[in-house]
Design a protein that fits this description.
The protein has 423 residues and is an alpha+beta fold. The protein has 17 helices and 9 strands. Helix 5 runs antiparallel to helix 6.
């Protein structure tokens, strides 16, 4: 993808701190030790995007050293899931990254389906893709509004959250709730797509590109925004790869890698979209990737709606009564259906012995789940690969030669969600 301008090459060699890649130590040759002031930034500061604590060594206004301290939001989700049935576990991944709820749920459901070897109707596949891209836009809107707010552009916060609200309206129409929907089930969807969804989603697709253009019109001509994002928080392609980055952070460093293109799942190989890549590796490049990704997600949603409207009347979930809840109307007339319903809800379903790693392209990058089944109704082991946790590893590298004010922009540009970091 072409870039707006040709900025200088990121930097030569590597800036990853040694011997600890995640902590920037004070360099006595650059900063007199007697001038260093150590402060705690967080865990209550709103600009830490959650309960993150940064221990910062300051030389005047410049960041001489920094280390991240995590664990203030530890929930024990992974161990909790190992005590629940597979059927009951589905609600937990949504709450790990509460901004990317639907995509996280998708990863876990796909993992269950791989172990079960169960087929999924095409209608469910396309609806899953549609809602995943709506979730991506929802997440990026939250990121854009809060990141702009931290740099002083308060009006952006109101504009983005207004459009976020209309996005959540679509989830509420389909699922009955605005977030944490539990709409994806092993075998398909919880319910059929409501009739009014297509018209409302079409209207949303018409309005969203114009809204994105307006966001850019506000920020791309703002001298303060440009000054505080261009050339700030540099991360080269080699360092991004070495630090295991993915998603917008990786693509903003010039690496063209997106699981939807490189390792297609659902029906991503059947839709047309581009992967935004910018080589500058700074805060502004990460902003550009987020903006272009929202445009591409609107394209994907529109194509999903085209296909879904052709599938009216088709099944939305597999017909496997050992795994899937029977239709509600059958519970009044069929004892067998009532028994299946009772068994699934109370005891869960048996998942064949095995292990699987399933990853998806979340708004923050590669979100993966590794699950092991011992053949029973509960997971034997659950482990998540959280992109926010990996992105936090790049904080020290990006903070080289940064001012304390730049630290706000840098941490925000990495788009971390602390619920996903601590788990």
């Amino acid at each position: 993808m072409s870039v707006i301008e040709n900025r200088p090459k990121v930097y030569e060699g590597s800036r990853i701190p040694s011997p600890i890649p995640t902590a920037l130590a004070v360099d006595p040759e650059k900063h007199p030790l007697e001038d260093i002031l150590t402060i705690n930034f967080g865990p209550n500061h709103p600009s830490t995007h959650g309960v993150l604590r940064l221990v910062v060594d300051l030389d005047g206004e410049m960041v001489a050293g920094v280390s991240a301290v995590i664990g203030y939001l530890h929930t024990g989700f992974e161990k909790t899931m190992e005590q629940k049935t597979w059927w009951k576990c589905i609600t937990y991944p949504e709450r790990i990254d509460y901004v990317s709820f639907q995509v996280n749920e998708l990863a876990f459901v796909l993992a269950i389906e791989k172990l079960l070897g169960i087929g999924v109707p095409r209608k469910a596949t396309w609806m899953r893709m549609c809602l995943s891209e709506l979730t991506r836009i929802h997440s990026h809107l939250v990121w854009l509004g809060t990141s702009a707010l931290e740099l002083g552009a308060i009006s952006m916060f109101w504009y983005t959250f207004d459009d976020r609200d209309t996005t959540l309206d679509l989830f509420e129409m389909v699922c009955g709730t605005r977030m944490h929907t539990r709409y994806f089930q092993a075998g398909g969807l919880a319910e059929d797509i409501p009739e009014g969804f297509y018209a409302q989603a079409r209207e949303w697709c018409k309005k969203m590109p114009k809204a994105i253009d307006e966001y850019e019109a506000i920020l791309d001509r703002n001298a303060i925004w440009l000054k505080r994002t261009k050339g700030i928080g540099l991360l080269s392609a080699d360092d991004a790869i070495a630090l295991g980055q993915s998603g917008p952070v990786l693509r903003a460093s010039g690496v063209n890698w997106d699981l939807r293109k490189n390792m297609p799942y659902l029906a991503y190989d059947e839709v047309s979209f581009d992967v935004p890549v910018f080589p500058e590796g700074d805060v502004y490049a990460r902003y550009r990737v987020h903006m272009e990704e929202m445009r591409e997600s609107v394209r994907i949603v529109s194509q999903c709606l085209d296909r879904l409207e052709e599938m009216r009347g088709e099944p939305w979930i597999a017909d496997d009564r050992k795994v899937v809840l029977p239709p509600r109307e059958e519970l009044h007339t069929s004892m067998e259906s009532l028994i299946h319903h009772f068994k699934i809800v109370t005891e869960g379903y048996m998942v064949p012995e095995g292990e699987v790693y399933q990853c998806v392209e979340s708004p923050r990058g590669e979100f993966g789940v590794y699950v092991v089944s011992d053949g029973g109704p509960k997971p034997w082991r659950v482990k998540f690969r959280a992109p926010s946790f990996v992105a936090l590893q790049a904080t020290a590298t990006c903070m080289t030669d940064a001012a304390i004010a730049d630290m706000i922009a840098i941490v925000g540009s990495l788009d971390g969600v602390m619920g996903e970091v601590d788990r």
